[in-house]
Amino acid sequence: MGSLAPTFEARLVPGTLCACATILVYDLFCTLDAEITYVWPRPWSISTVLFVLNRYLPFVDTFLSLSSKFTRLTPEECLARNKAVAWLSFLGIFFSEGILMLRTYAIWERKRSVAIFLSGLAVVVFVPSLVFVYIETTTLHYVSSGPEVLGCTLGHAGTIAIFAYMLFMISETTIAVLTAVKAYRDLRRSRVPWVVKLYKDGLVFYLYLLAISIANVLVPILAPSSFSNWLATMDRAASSGYKDVNDTMISLRRRSLSRVFFIAAFAFVVRWFFFSSSSASAARYGSHQIKEHNFIERATRPDKSLNVQKHPFLQARMGRDERDELMGTEIRNGEQDYWERFQMPYMTSKDTSSMDAQHVVGAIDQLLSLNGWVAALCPTLTRPFGQNKHEHAYDDLVREDHLYFIAIVIHSADHFLVDQLAVIVQMAKRLGTNNLFVSMLDYESSDSTETLTDLCEAVLTLLGVPFRIRRVPGMTADPAAAYYPLEEAHMRNLALEPLHELRKKRGINFHRVIWLKGFTCPNDIFETIKVSFVNEAAMVCGMDWAEHNGFFIFSDRWRTRDIDGDQFRQSKSSSKAEAVPPRDHLGASRYAQHLPFQVFCCESGTHVVDPAQSYYKDIAYRAGTDFHNLSKADPVPNRDPDAACLDSSQAWFCRDLWVRSARDSMDEVDKVNNHDSDHRVHRRAAVAEREPLAEPEAAPQIEAAAGQAQAAAGRRPAAGPAVDADANAGSDYDAMPEDDIEGTAEEPPFVESDPVHLSMPNSVFRPARILVNPRCVTTYAGVSHTQLALDLFGTGEGDTSQAGVGKYVLEDWEGAPESFVCQEQRQTGGRKATKTQRRLGFSIHDELQR
Q1: How many angstroms from the chain centroid is the CA of residue 830?
Q2: Residue 593 located in a structural domain
């Protein structure tokens, strides 16, 4: 959403720099003759050196800043340049203040007491200011401006530099007071014209510096961070403009003062009107940036609300196709005609202007009932425990007033985007528009998704729901070079960018992140959120069902693994108890009772993630990088049998959750036991050192002992054969058909790469709480929702065995499996590229040692 403020900002800062550069050049031309006459012939002294540095150093940092606004620079180059500008500015102000102090010392006839006082003042002012400038430069952070934007885009900057300006104000005020006292004494006895001019010009110049210093203090406090150093260059230009004629310095003549500001204003106007192309691009980019709290907000009580009326930057559209539409002129003419004929004639005063508000309110009421299927028919579907029959079943979620981050990644999926929009609208109606933030990422869709995102923008804008809708190009232009797990990680991390920005810049912490996939009824999402809260779960997934040959099958087997590390079955929705999707006994039992069950990994359909256990702990989506790029002539790489699994980014995310949960539990224990982190690392490493290394002959005994330990824990040994006949079969494009695999179609046996390696079993570590809620159903276009609900849940009558919160809570949590089925994509080729399978060991202990 564009606004005047970002455009004004994008033009004001470069315009001010142009004006300052104009002042410097003009002042040089006006005073160069006097400088040649009075300065150059004299012998060099401390005052001469200070004069030269104060005179010509501003040209360096001013034009360096100016060039940064009209050059394409990387964030690293922007940071280096602006750090240099900050230090040059500080040195320039230091020299200017030194000249003023020398001038004051000379006025006071070089008295020893004045020299001591000014020396103390210099120490008190410049030493803390040096520290403040250093801290300020460490807080600078620049972000990429995009290929179409010139200059640097400031992402974050501190405000501690205002304390340096305050100290300079104290110094300048003290010097002005000393000058005024001395002037009062001298002018009482004599009124020599050049003496009067000396004191008068000095005090007038002090007023100019004081005004600029006050502005430099107030601007970072009251304005956005991008304005923080707006007037620093102006301060430099003004500081370098005052020189004392009698002390080998030149005074900025009052008669030329009006000319200077006239030239500066002219340069500003020229910059504003004739150099706006890159500024407009910067303004469009700046309007997407989430603004951080200013100094006063941080010092008092920062506003952490998602109120779009108060903070328009919370609604942003990025990557829109800005070209004129085919019927754009006709649409604009229609809007203008409606305004002139049906609205403007009736708005004759403030009393009648409310008619437009009534139109808006009526439109909002209609939007909140958007999509009759979602609003009216979803509650009629069969669900266990009568969860759709209780109107107030989720009022407790509303009362908690939690914040929810809704993330959607779209890639040519216009067939369910409108349904997803309807779900968001219904959630906003129930939870409140200020409790949601929608991040919608269009990943180079080639269908009508881009047009539908325009509809989403209009609906969410009218409803007042915060959002960022962004369209991005694909990572690779050649489909043969596309590696889907890496693209998947890239897409998801982009969708999560507002989550991190809102936390970093505005201190807004979301309680849950909701990933919308396909179509899921709002009540099913609410129940999954409730399951997530009562179990304190890191992630809770629904179940993804697709229509296949007239019946429904569980579809997302690539990313989902039961608690034994096995793939889910490609079961039908009407399968018997012994053929349900989860293979482990406990999971199958709870699935049959429609209860949440623990899994090693999941994503199937819409899922809810706790950011406090994941994203806020620096867990991001990632993928393997040692894949084979088919678009190059490189040979196929040879990978070790125990090499990392090249599976989906969600599978990597799940494994990171398990490792993070274990690390957090160890950190908590160490904190209780008052152990530092180094001691903890040595203690963990010492676990395998307490017993002597086993001899190679003892390897069979070790493997037998490991098998007995797993059997005692009720877990299937990792190296054992699969019980189910289709345990390793792929689904859809999840894996290669067995008859397409070269050589044998059997699964490679699970083999320890180091038979004498000892590590702690996964069962001793705190488990990651990852659940599947079978009552949360995700489907796609063309699916008979009613039939699917009947297949899964029957009539829904008589499900009274679980009362209250019992139908949500999982009491016993198991540790991670010692191995899992790795279904990996070893080569490029997009989403449907060939995939292979193997069983791979998973050791949390080994991961913690890395």
Answers
A1: 26
A2: no
